[in-house]
Amino acid sequence: MASSKKTLVVSKGQIDSMIRSIRGVRVMLDSDLAKIYGVPTFRFNEAIKRNRHRFPADFMFQLTREEFDALRSQIAMSKPQNSSQIAMSSGKHRGATYRPYAFTEHGALQAANVLRSTRAVQMNTTCGDAVGWTVLVAW
């Protein structure tokens, strides 16, 4: 078990900072989960869309334009040196209509299951020592 934690690229502190409260629910965004699971965000979202039937509303939801604008503003204000995809993205690169998906604890677990990558399985099993939630380290 100790050897699997050595390959953990995203630290527990980083994961903790990725958890946000949206609509009164603790969630992680698609880009953050993709980073944790070691896949590009667009591949992550492709896998989710192919398996949409596995993600009911209490597992995942898409942010509204207002929620996304508020979140982007929040991130830019709190971290001036932030290189986050959300804070730095523009319509030129991600499309003017792109709104991220937010995943609850159960949605994050289900995402790891549909990805079927070695890294997703590893993160799913090594992050059992959660703070607050049970799936990921900081949840």
Descriptive keywords:
alpha+beta; single chain; disordered N terminus; 139 residues; 4 strands
Word description of this protein:
With 139 residues, the chain is of the alpha+beta class. It has one domain (2-126). 52% of the residues lie in helices and 10% in strands. A 4-stranded antiparallel sheet has the order 1-2-4-3. Strand 1 and strand 2 form a beta hairpin. Helix 3 (30-37) crosses helix 4 and helix 8 (105-115) runs antiparallel to helix 9. The longest helix has 14 residues, at 65-78.
Helical residue percent? 40-55%
> Structural class of the secondary structure composition?
alpha+beta
Spatial strand order of the main sheet: 1-2-4-3
How large is the radius of gyration? 15 Å
- Mass-distribution shape: globular
Structural domain tally:
1
Terminus-to-terminus distance? 20 Å
Quick check: average pLDDT?
Answer: 76
| Main β-sheet description | 4 strands, antiparallel
Put the structure in a nutshell.
The chain has helices at 2-6, 12-18, 30-37, 41-50, 65-78, 85-88, 91-94, 105-115, 118-126, and strands at residues 20-22, 25-29, 60-62, 101-103. By secondary structure, it is of the alpha+beta class.
List the helices and strands and how they pair.
Blueprint: H1 2-6, H2 12-18, E1 20-22, E2 25-29, H3 30-37, H4 41-50, E3 60-62, H5 65-78, H6 85-88, H7 91-94, E4 101-103, H8 105-115, H9 118-126
Antiparallel strand pairs: 1-2, 2-4, 3-4
